[in-house]
């Protein structure tokens, strides 16, 4: 009902911000990922917020999401800074918090992984963006083996900035829905949904917009019956931007939409 049960503060030294949280798959508690002035890391807390475990990876990574995996481990996504740019970065930890494997990849410009999904065979599909040599950003889909080996990447986009923030499966076939934003279809950023096969072949692309508003999908949730709920807001999180939830059908048709902040 929204009543506060407990509240805890964690001092990580300087700037310290949690970016995602997931329930521990067995034994209670939560895994939290964070970025701090000392580096990016993960910590385990109890059901009442007591710190049980903490580990920092390095000063060169930024973590975005943490995903529970079928073997009890967790996948952490984000990017790793190199001498010249950012590389997409994935890190798997076991139930005890120890690193199982790390994978980084990228092209001529910046690359980043935002969100991932694991199929029934343990293969991992990751969404994000990739920049080419002239700085143009395209939506990125990558497929990795259960051991973290990069199998392939696919790029989708326009001549302007494009980026994915979520990936989820269709229950009726082996297709995937990618959600993000594109600035290549109008004067403002628009919510952008793309349906692709498991091999990355494009099936359809849809955009959704409100005149005068910069919008992008920041998360999506698969529902029964091949329907999806998408969370949308200004990709730059500008003050006064609307917070929107909308639901689409298997073909991308808008079923309902609610705006929870009118931008005033």
Mean pLDDT: 92
Q: What separation lies between the terminal Cα atoms?
A: 28 Å
Total helical segments: 0
Oligomer: single chain
Helical fraction equals: under 10%
* Total beta strand runs: 20
Low-confidence stretches: none
Spell out the helices and strands N to C.
Answer: EEEEEEEEEEEEEEEEEEEE
Label the overall shape: globular
Strand order of the largest sheet: 1-2-3-4
How would you characterize the overall build of this protein?
This protein is mostly beta strands and about 260 residues long. The protein is globular. It has a four-stranded antiparallel beta sheet, with no helix packed on it. It has a four-stranded antiparallel beta sheet with strand order 5-6-7-8, with no helix packed on it. It is about 0% helix and about 55% strand. The relative contact order is 0.08.
Please give the structural blueprint:
Blueprint: E1 16-23, E2 30-36, E3 39-45, E4 51-58, E5 61-68, E6 74-81, E7 86-93, E8 99-105, E9 111-118, E10 124-131, E11 137-144, E12 150-156, E13 162-169, E14 176-182, E15 190-196, E16 202-208, E17 216-223, E18 227-233, E19 244-248, E20 254-259
Antiparallel strand pairs: 1-2, 2-3, 3-4, 5-6, 6-7, 7-8, 9-10, 10-11, 11-12, 13-14, 14-15, 15-16, 17-18, 18-19, 19-20
């Amino acid at each position: 009902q929204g009543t506060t049960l407990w509240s805890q503060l964690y001092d990580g030294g300087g700037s310290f911000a949690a970016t995602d949280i997931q329930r521990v798959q067995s034994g209670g508690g939560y895994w939290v990922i964070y970025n701090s002035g000392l580096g990016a890391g993960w910590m385990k807390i109890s059901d009442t917020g007591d710190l049980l475990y903490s580990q920092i990876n390095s000063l060169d990574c930024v973590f975005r999401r943490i995903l529970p995996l079928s073997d009890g481990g967790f996948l952490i996504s984000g990017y790793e800074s190199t001498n010249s740019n950012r590389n997409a970065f994935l890190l798997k930890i076991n139930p005890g918090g120890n690193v199982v494997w790390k994978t980084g990849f990228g092209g001529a410009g910046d690359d980043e992984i935002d969100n991932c999904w694991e199929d029934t065979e343990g293969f991992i599909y990751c969404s994000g963006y990739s920049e080419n040599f002239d700085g143009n950003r395209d939506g990125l889909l990558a497929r990795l083996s259960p051991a973290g080996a990069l199998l392939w990447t696919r790029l989708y986009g326009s001549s302007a900035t494009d980026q994915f923030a979520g990936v989820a499966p269709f229950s009726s076939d082996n297709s995937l829905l990618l959600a993000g934003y594109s600035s290549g279809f109008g004067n403002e950023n628009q919510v952008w949904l793309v349906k692709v096969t498991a091999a990355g072949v494009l099936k359809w692309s849809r955009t959704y917009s409100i005149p005068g508003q910069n919008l992008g999908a920041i998360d999506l949730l698969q529902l029964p019956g091949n329907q999806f709920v998408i969370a949308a807001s200004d990709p730059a999180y500008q003050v006064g931007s609307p917070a929107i939830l909308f639901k689409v059908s298997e073909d991308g048709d808008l079923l309902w939409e609610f705006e929870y902040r009118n931008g005033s």
